[in-house]
Recover the amino acids of this structure.
């Protein structure tokens, strides 16, 4: 999925409102308020712009947690162009909880390798991957509604509790048996132009924000759980909603500073580093030695780097703005490609604001 810049976002929204056929198969819209994704030609009432997020392919929509619209049927539209895909999508729709395998595909008289290529070409994901994601999302819905783990397991079509726990742990970063319906800490997915993120909040503060594919995510969630901060569950709080709104503004290039209140879980030294990271203005960068000097410990460069890596609130605590002494990009838990995209976005936003300020000054 590429980063839709603000000007592209405007163009895509205009095409969505016009129900343009120009983007058929090339772009899709996810609607935050409903959790579904649609084709641009969907006959349903169009959502407000702030509730839209755009994707290049169906796989990206589903990875971000959106379900296909039942009115415009984006999956079915692909199937109309490819009978083989349509046949399997119908089968999946009839048995979404089934543990599909290549043997099932062969039993339908289809070649598994041909099916694999067709789904990757049209949907960006294999049929078996789509089926697995569908099952796990069904299970996550059960858990979010307060259902029992065993009910979620059966809904997802897992006969083995251990296999279900492993699959859900990979999806959520924590075993489903450890999720509580009345938890103080709620975990929710937030879709962004750079991929889905997991946010853990209570009713007053944000405790964790990470990209879902960060390798350290499961360990960070476990630290929250073991640290007796509060039991973890699925769901949203008012802080989730504030965070989503601010991230939208950030990616649109109009946010100057985040206001979401944070809970910092670390040592006094780590917190001092994180506060400096929060103070780095959008569009600027710092080296580890810069930060070490700013906290009054110029020799603690290595410790600063470790504290930077231990940060578990991405973007808001701007560890992506830390670069090497020579200006080169250094390691980033979300991936160097994301770090590059974030810095490019912020550079453009800072430049746009500067031009606006200069124009305003000249006008006055």
């Amino acid at each position: 999925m590429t980063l839709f810049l603000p000007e592209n976002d405007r163009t895509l929204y205009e095409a969505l409102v016009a129900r343009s056929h120009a983007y058929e198969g090339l772009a899709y819209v996810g609607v935050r308020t409903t959790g579904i994704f649609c084709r641009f030609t969907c006959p349903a009432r169009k959502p407000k712009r702030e509730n839209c997020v755009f994707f290049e392919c169906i796989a990206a929509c589903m990875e971000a947690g959106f379900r296909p619209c039942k009115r415009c049927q984006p999956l079915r539209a692909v199937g109309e162009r490819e009978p083989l895909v349509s046949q399997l999508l119908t089968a999946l729709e009839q048995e979404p909880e089934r543990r599909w395998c290549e043997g099932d595909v062969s039993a339908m008289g289809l070649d598994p390798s041909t099916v694999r290529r067709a789904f990757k070409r049209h949907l960006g994901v294999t049929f078996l991957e789509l089926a697995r994601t569908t099952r796990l999302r069904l299970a996550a819905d059960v858990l979010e509604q307060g259902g029992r783990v065993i009910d979620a397991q059966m809904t997802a079509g897992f006969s083995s509790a251990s296999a279900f726990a492993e699959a859900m742990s990979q999806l959520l970063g924590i075993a489903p048996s450890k999720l509580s319906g009345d938890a103080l800490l709620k975990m929710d997915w937030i879709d962004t132009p750079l991929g889905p993120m997991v946010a853990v909040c209570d009713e007053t503060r944000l405790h964790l924000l990470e990209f879902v594919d960060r390798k350290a995510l499961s360990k960070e969630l476990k630290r929250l759980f073991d640290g007796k901060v509060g039991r973890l569950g699925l769901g949203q709080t008012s802080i989730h909603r504030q965070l989503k709104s601010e991230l939208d503004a950030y990616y649109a290039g109009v946010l100057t500073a985040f206001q979401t209140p944070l809970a910092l879980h670390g040592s006094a030294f780590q917190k001092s580093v994180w506060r400096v990271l929060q103070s780095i203005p959008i569009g600027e960068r710092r080296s580890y030695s810069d930060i070490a000097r700013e906290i009054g410990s110029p020799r603690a460069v290595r410790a600063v780097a470790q504290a930077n890596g231990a940060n578990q609130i991405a973007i808001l605590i701007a560890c992506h703005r830390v670069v090497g002494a020579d200006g080169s990009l250094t390691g980033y838990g979300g991936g160097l490609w994301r770090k590059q995209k974030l810095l490019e976005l912020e550079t453009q936003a800072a430049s746009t604001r500067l031009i606006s300020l200069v124009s305003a000054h000249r006008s006055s």
Q: What stands out?
A: DSSP finds 15 helices and ten strands in the chain.
